[in-house]
Write a structure and sequence with these properties.
The protein is built from no helices and eleven strands. It is mainly β.
Length: 128
């Protein structure tokens, strides 16, 4: 499974190549939990306001959402539950900085390195 972490601003996309590890833990004889961990690095001098986590088409079990967790060190800082599209892909957009419309003050929501953990329920592969 390929996970893409993006920082986006209208008409500009900055793509960060993630380093990933994936583990699969059986739940029962039909389904398993796939856990992918990746590193997201949000630069200090960013002009971008949005980030995105997305996964390409893949195997999935209907009615089970994707869970995305963001950690700064060992501390959880954000959790999202995302619906899976019919082809098995998913996409989650989130603010990494905020601009106060009245004062123009910019507040960074995300900055630095984060561990992103993505959990997805998949079908077990048939054993030959």
């Amino acid at each position: 499974m390929t996970i893409t972490l993006l920082l986006i601003i209208p008409n500009i996309i900055a793509h960060a190549e993630p380093s990933e590890t994936t583990t699969i833990t059986p739940i029962n004889d039909k389904i398993s939990l796939e856990k992918t961990s990746s590193i997201m690095d949000i630069p200090k001098n960013k002009e971008l306001s949005w980030g995105m986590v997305k996964g390409g088409p893949s195997d999935y079990v209907e009615r089970y959402p994707v869970i995305i967790q963001f950690f700064k060190g060992n501390e959880p800082v954000h959790v999202a539950q995302v619906k899976v599209k019919g082809d098995g892909s998913y996409e989650y957009k989130f603010k990494i900085r905020n601009t106060d419309q009245n004062t123009g003050k910019i507040t960074d929501i995300f900055e630095g390195k984060y561990t992103v953990k993505i959990f997805k329920v998949i079908h077990n592969k048939l054993q030959a």
